[in-house]
Amino acid sequence: MLLSRVRGSLVAAVVADCIGAKFEFSRFVNIDKVLNAVKKLEQNRTTMKKKVAEGKKEKQGDVLSFTDDTAMARSIAASLIEHKDVNVRDIGARFAKEFEKEPSRGYGGSVITVLRALADQDLEDVFQPAREQFDGSGSYGNGGGMRIAPLGLFCHQLPLQELKEKTVSVTKLTHTHPYAIVGTLLESYAVHLALSLDNSKPLDTDNFLGQLLERLRPTEKEIYDQRRQMKSKEKNSGDESEEEGIEGLPYCNKVELIRDFLKRDVDSKEVRKKLGTKVTALDSIPTAVYCFLRGASQSIPGTEERGPVEQTIIYAISLGGDTDTVATMAAAISGAFYGLESVPQAWQESCEGVRDALLFGEKLTEIISAREVKS
């Protein structure tokens, strides 16, 4: 059911962000530590419900807070629902407003400069603040990928060209480096693809990667070529700035590496070393795709009795590093395939923002369904 899968993507992303935030950049993270955390969370909910059933007064209990990942994704979802399309000026204004309202959500230092600039209603070019970051090279962080899931869902059954164009425009509000743009496209493509596949049978991971590469390969080449042409023109006009050393198709190479990883039992150390868990897009977004596919196809030690969405989130967090962002990106893909029913109720009840995610999912599904009826 489409509603369950759209909601599942948004809700899974929120709970992964909330749970993952507790471990972000912790020195030592492993499966056991993450399992202990979610078991404690589940036990607390069970105890609370038992006391309520016995007629005892019980507080709601601690609710885990979401980070900037969810705050920005919510802004995109709300804008898409209001405008029924991508309105970059409105999305940028919402980013700025959310930051101003709650600046302690964990925003990165560089993006704060952009968000403050986007708050200026007289700003003519909304892409300019991001374009000027890092001496004109733009940020190559994973901030585009962490928030893009609502757009991947919104573009369900739209032409891939539309998905690509809309994803690029939303990304460039804060991140203009080719690595950030291609990484965000990888996440957007993955969410979009997961939602489109038949989930009544086990996921064919090799087919998923094949379709993902068909989308990604020409896009990655095109974006790097455009960057080189732009830099060449700048040099010819007297700008002597050096181009970043982009060689080959690094994202496609990592997707191929994922295929190799799924064929054998790789340990977390190798995943961290070769795919990455950093805040950079190239060193986190492919990892999120791998976490989804591993959760869908292989039992994660210690989580055998849990469903694939749970396994995906637990495994993503256990890798350490940028735990909330890798987990939220992986969960958005997994939730889009498996649906809301795969996200434990205790997790939903323990995390801030889930009610809004359910509502956003309902509204986005209405837009998608109305579009399909018209066509």
Can you put this structure into words, describing what you see?
By secondary structure, the protein is an all-alpha fold. It has one domain (2-52, 64-234, 251-374): ADP-ribosylation/Crystallin J1 (ADP-ribosylglycohydrolase fold), CATH 1.10.4080.10. It contains 17 helices and no strands. Helix 1 (2-21) packs antiparallel against helix 15 (323-338), helix 9 (178-196) runs parallel beside helix 15 and helix 11 packs parallel to helix 13 (285-297). The chain is globular, with a radius of gyration of 20 Å. Pfam families: ADP_ribosyl_GH. Residues 223-238 have a biased composition (Basic and acidic residues). Residues 31-58 form a coiled coil. InterPro entries: ADP-ribosylglycohydrolase, Ribosyl_crysJ1, Ribosyl_crysJ1_sf.
Low-pLDDT parts are: none
Share of residues in helices: 55-70%
The secondary-structure class comes to mainly alpha
Shape: globular
Assigned CATH class: Mainly Alpha
- If helices are DSSP runs of H or I spanning 4 or more residues, what is the number of helices? 17
How many distinct beta strands? 0
Radius of gyration: 20 Å
Biggest sheet, in brief?
none
Order of helices and strands: HHHHHHHHHHHHHHHHH
β-strand amount = under 5%
